[in-house]
Structure formats: structure tokens, C-alpha cells
Structure prediction request, 412 residues.
Amino acid sequence: MNDNKLKDIWSKAENFRDTPGYESDTIERFLTSRSNSIAEKITRMLQFDIAIKLLAAIVFTINAILYFNIQSIVFTTCLSGAALIIPFVLFELRILRQFSGISDYGQSTKAKLSAMLTFLRSRFFIAILSISSTNLFFFYSGLLFYFFIVYGHLRQLDNMDIFVFSILCIIGIVMNFVINYTQVRYHIKHLEACLSDLNDSVLSVVSINIETQQKQDRTIKLLLGVALILGFVLLIAILKKIGM
Amino acid sequence: MKHQQNRKEFSKLIEKNQRIIHKITSIYCNSGDDREDLFQEICLQLWNSYGSFREDSKFSTWMYRVALNTAISNVRKKKNNFSFEPLNEYTRLPLESDDDKENVKLLYKAVSMLNSIDKAIILLWLEEKNYDEIASIIGTTKSNISVKLVRIKRKLEEIVNNTIKQES
Prediction:
């Protein structure tokens, strides 16, 4: 099959396409519809998480007011919890800003795929770690609020209570992390396959970029991990202290 | 109000150039529903990326870039069954012969078996884009495109020959 023959067949293909021929009104409606792209899903995921974190910060602040004259240790913890949420929110807002540049479809295919892969394999891992932390904050603030509504104070807890609460909290964090990670894993594989199809050397260049990015992000990862563990230990310590 | 006005004008621009999007959806999707979903997604991404369009480049080149990036990034579970849906009576246009229909069907089947990147390259080549334009849209060198095109055409030929052998 020579080049001319191929192009000739292609030109005739137009007659066979079952194209509806949309009118501008229909196209205008498409422009306001909801996107199903992975970029849009990640953006929505981050926006939703920021909203939930801010809600947890508000509940912590309400708890601080409620427990002010009742249990000073809970009051202090609530204020610390609300304060701890702020750097997480700021970090996610930064990720969201960076991502809006990456998700631009007007770049060349290679640039678009490389940027997406670098983001998903490096920055997104920290982002989902930060997203998972929401469970801890939400669970903790909700628990304190629930106890105040039901008992008027943080009631004494035995070891079994603490064990159950801790397990629930850990399961929430792990599930959140796994679900979010699974969602993008398939997409990462697809991007890697596309880049490898594009040019053998592209993927290795992208891998170097990812490595550099990961090295730069090591401090943030460490800080997020420490904040998450610290928050969890603090929760157990407070619950134990109250329980004594 | 101004935003709505811009959207109206942009919709008219897409309406005029929708041929490009239909060609892309027809090689990246097998079913009519998938094609409509992808058409919608491409329109949305074109609108979202309109700010990045610079007047110094051709609108059609920019449109190909955004539409192909959307189609390539659009990850769906792979369906192995290729189907070339027949046209209804109202949309069918007169063709020279039944051979044309068979050839078109064969070409589509062969293109559907290529990977996402190769599909983009061959589509741009079939659309009479020169090597410079293809390289700029894909983001690689002219020589890489030239090498890839030779391989893709060979692959297409192999698929076509195998299909003919299987059918006869």
C-alpha cells in the first residue's frame, strides 16, 4: 500500500464517518459540562480535601470554645489541631496551583505527558499523604464534638475504647491512601507506555526529573510524615490522659 | 456577560472546525457513545486551554494539539472488539464502489491496532500535515517523526495483509 493510496482511502473515509455534526448551541452546552479527565479528578479531589480540612479546623475551633472552661488540656489540643491543619491546607493549595499549569492541554504531547508523569510519580504521592491526614483531623475533631454534645465533656476512656478509636483512624488513613493511589496507578502506567512509545530516551529523561523532584520533596515528605505521626500520638496521649 | 459572549463565539469556531475533532474521535474510540464522550471532553479542554492559544500559530494546529493530547490522556479500559458502525440512510453519502467501503474499514481496523502515539502521528500525516508541524504538535524531532512514520506505515501494511489473509 503506497502513500497516495493510503491518503486516498483516508479522504474517502469521511463519507463513512457517522458524525452527527453538532450545532453551536450543543457545543456551547458541552463547554459547561463536567470533565472526566484525570487532571480534573485530581483537582476536584484536592479541592474537596481542602474544604474538608477547613471544616475540621472550624470544628476544632468550636471545640476549643466549648471545652475552654471545662478541660484545659482538650482546649489546648483543639487549638493545636486547628493550627496543624493550616500548613497542610497551604501545601495542598500550592500543589493545586502547580497542577493547573501542568494540566494545560495546549502544550506538545511530549511536554504534556512528561509533566503529568513527573507530577503523578513525585508530587502526587505527597499530596495523597496529605489528603489521607484529613481522616485523623476529621475523626479527632468529630470525636471531641460528639463527646461534648453527649456527655458535656470528654468522658473517661478505657484501653479498649482507645484501641478501637485508633484502629478506626488508622483504617481510614490507609484506605484513603490506597483508594487514591489505585486511582492514579493505572494512569501512571498508561503515561509511561505512551512516553515509551514516543521515544525510548524520553522516559529516562523523565525518570531523572522525577528523581530530582523526589529528592527536593524529601523534606516535605518527612515533615508531613512527622506531623501525621505526631498528631496521632497526641490523640492517643490525650485520650489516655483523660482516661486515667 | 462577556464570558458568555466569548463562549458563544468559541462554540461557533468549534462548529466550523468540528471535522478535526470527529476524525480524532473516530480513530481513538470504537463505539458511538465513547466518540460522543470524547468529543465533549475535547470541546471542554479546548475551551479551558483557549487562553494558551497564541495568534501566531494556526488555530487548526493548536486544535489538533489539544484534541490529540485529550484523546491520548483519555484512559479507558481497552475494548478488543473493533466495530465499524454502519451509517444510517440519512448520513450515508454516495461512494464510488463497495471496495472503497472495504478499504476504509480495513484502514480503520489497522489504525485502531496502533498505540496512542502512533495513531496521532499517522492521523496528522494522513491529514497532510508536514513533518515540521507533526514534530511541533507531538514535541519531538523531525527525524524521529520520519523514522516513526516509516515504521507505522510498515506496521499498517502488515496488519492489512494479515487481515486480508485471514478473511480469504
User: Anything to note?
Assistant: Residues 2-167 of chain B form one domain. Chain B touches chain A through 73 residues (CB under 8 Å). The CA atoms of residues 84 and 135 of chain B lie 30 Å apart.
